[in-house]
Write a structure and sequence with these properties.
Rossmann fold; about 220 residues; 12 strands; single chain; alpha/beta; 8-stranded mixed β-sheet
């Protein structure tokens, strides 16, 4: 059993928390406020838990970053760099799994231009957190596919980028717990390869405007 901390209590963080908890991991959801009414959409205001799941603990983000073995960044990508850089001491020596995309919001609320063209949020995080092993994955799909890849008719792809092979192996294990088969996981190489997968977000708003929030992933077809 791994101690997993998830920063962000929205739909992404909440769904990841529930699936990883069901797989037997000790999961703590890091929220900006410990008041369940304002913590995030994944928090049950009555129970003070993630979606009412009493197996998932709640704590502030700094404590979660300090105490967890593996930390997942599910915070908004456009502000994640500043937020996580402030947790540099707490994240030292940890694996940081970044599943977010850093884009500027458009008028209709959908993703727009990249915040870091020619680079990536994952690269920026690795530079800001030199003592942390950053791994990028799960950012090329709608959130419901992250925890249930089998819902798609065509096998999806989970791309993995990172400089540390042991960290990527650990994250690959977590992907398996989320339902990802080994054949669906593509190790792209070092952290610089994350700029390719983060750029894939540019196709997403066009798909959403035509089809709505139907589950899909940007995947390899073989």
């Amino acid at each position: 059993m791994t101690s997993i901390g998830i920063l962000g209590a929205g739909r992404v963080g909440g769904s990841l928390a529930r699936k990883l908890s069901a797989a037997g991991h000790h999961v703590t959801l890091g929220v900006r406020s410990l008041d369940p009414a304002t913590a995030g959409t994944a928090v049950d205001p009555a129970a003070g838990t993630a979606g009412g799941d009493t197996r998932i603990a709640l704590s502030d983000q700094r404590t979660v970053a300090r105490d967890a073995d593996i930390v997942i960044n599910a915070t908004p990508g456009d502000s994640a760099l500043c937020r996580l850089a402030d947790l540099r001491t707490e994240l030292a020596g940890k694996i940081l799994v970044d599943v977010s995309n850093a884009t500027r919001e458009t008028g209709d609320g959908l993703p727009g231009e990249l915040c870091y063209p020619g680079s990536s949020l994952a690269e920026k995080l690795q530079a800001a957190l030199p003592g942390t092993r950053v791994v990028k994955t799960l950012n090329t799909m709608l959130f419901m596919v992250m925890t249930a890849p089998e819902i798609l008719a065509t096998p999806p792809t989970a791309y993995v980028s990172g400089d540390d092979e042991a960290a990527k192996q650990a994250v690959t294990g977590l992907l398996g717990d989320l339902g990802w088969q080994p054949a669906w996981i593509e190790n792209l190489g070092g952290i610089t390869t994350a700029r390719a997968t983060e750029a894939m977000i540019l196709v997403v708003p066009h798909v959403l405007r035509r089809n709505g929030f139907e589950p899909f992933a940007v995947s390899l077809a073989r």
